[in-house]
Each structure stands twice: as structure tokens, then as C-alpha cells.
Amino acid sequence: MRILITNDDGITAPGLEVMEAIATDLAGPDGEVWVVAPAFEQSGVAHCINYVHPTMMSEMGPRRFAAEGSPADCVLIAIHDAMKDCLPDLVLSGVNRGNNSAENTLYSGTIGGAMEAALQGYPAVALSQYYGPANRELVNPFEAAATHGADVIRRILDASPTENAEYSLFYNVNFPPVSAVDVKGIRLATQGRRPGVVFGTEPHIAPSGRRFSWIKGGDQQVMAGTGSDAAVNLEGYISVTPMRADLTAHEMMDTLSGINS
Question: Which residues contact 220 (CB under 8 A, 6 or more apart)?
């Protein structure tokens, strides 16, 4: 198996090392692991692509490239340039430092990389490691992802249906904020919403007198709806959420049909 990996924390991020180990396990002794990742951190860029200016790509080693762009840019660069003569069988994005459950999904560059791979027609899985009091101080905070990552992806690939949909499936996987031994299992979960949790800003006045704002996230320990990704994560389970890039609210098509003329 030939696997492409990317992330949004950057090519030097420790989570990328974890993902490389997972991918190496999956690829097997006769497989290949390719890395095309952002040269600098790209957290929060979602599905951004840089089509108004060129993106510089640097070869860091065999099958390893850094690109001055977003995770979605990296997937495009891999498929249409770096790997154009040896296309991937699977695209993995992550392992992200911090969860991409619930509302975080919408902002995530990790998700954006997997989404772009799906739009290009490739099987794709995004992996993120939830942080919390039980794992933040571990020697390896990515312990749960490192231990269980390959097995989860194998289960997804074995269960994923063959389909010919306009918008292909991709998968969002979040590992709970616990040590590897305390992971209770895997749960298929919906995308949740943490009540009252939104991004905000913290104003700051620099010594020069200029005004700045820091973007701040909300409390990640707030419980979401029963059976949703953030909820099962906080209960100690790995969440697997099937996704598509189609943003249509299909359930509203009949309700709003009176708009038609």
C-alpha cells in the first residue's frame, strides 16, 4: 500500500511522527509512506487553498516534502506533482495535537486535508488526539493514537462501502484524552456541538500602542450530545465519524419548497 500523509501542525510536529509510524504499520514491508506537509503550522485554516499565489515546495528527503501552504494545498501538490507518477492508495491527515470533535471540525486544517483527498477521489482519514487532564502530562500525550491508530484505520477500511457518490466519504477519528490502556473501545459517532462553546477573541495592546486580538477557543471538557463525537471521547472512547463535503441541509428541502416559483 502507498500512503500519503499530511497534517496542519507542520512538518516538524510530533503528531506527524506518530502518523508516520501508523502509516508504516499499515503500508507493510512492501509499501511506501509519503509525507507532504505544511512547512509551518496551519492550524485553523479548514479547507483553505492558496490559488492566488504560488506555493513553494521543498524536498526534505526521500518521499518527504514541505510546502508553504495549507493541508489541502499539500494534498493537491502531492497528487498532481510530487506523487503524480505513483499515486496514493490512502491519504491520512494528522495526528492533530488536540481534538477535532464537534464544532472544531469546521475550523480544522486536519479535516481540510482529508476532505480535499476525498474530493480528489481518494480514501481519506483524519486523526486527532484529544487533550485533557488525564493525558496532557504523559511522556507521550499521543499514546492513545499511537497505540490504537493502525487498528482503527484497518477497521474503517474493512467496513467502508464501495460507492459512486458525487461527494465521497471521508472519516474523522478522534482519540480520547486518556492513556492508551484506558481507551474503552471505538464508537461510531455523529458530529456533536458543545453547548455554549464558541471561538472568541482576547484584545491585547502591544508596547508600541498597536492593538491586536488573540483568537481563543472554548472549554473542551464540555459534554456534547449523547452519542456524538465529543461526548464519546470524554467517556473514553475513540470516535469515528463518516463525513462528506456536501453541506446541503437535505432535511430542509421539502420544508422550504415554498421558496420555489
Answer: 98, 99, 130, 131, 132, 194, 197
43 is in an annotated binding site: yes
- What CATH number corresponds to the domain at position 15? 3.40.1210.10
Q: Is residue 80 part of a domain?
A: yes
CB 109 within 8 A of CB 235: no
Strands 237-243 and 170-175: antiparallel
Split into its structural domains, the chain has a count of: 1
Average pLDDT, the chain: 96
Q: Categorize the per-residue pLDDT at 37 as very low, low, confident or very high, splitting at 50, 70 and 90.
A: very high
Name the strand (E) or helix (H) holding 173. strand 170-175
Q: Is residue 9 part of an annotated ligand binding site?
A: yes
100 marked among binding-site residues? no
Q: Model confidence at 85, in pLDDT bands (50, 70, 90)? A: very high
Residue 25, annotated ligand binder?
no
Predicted TM-score (pTM) of the model is 0.95
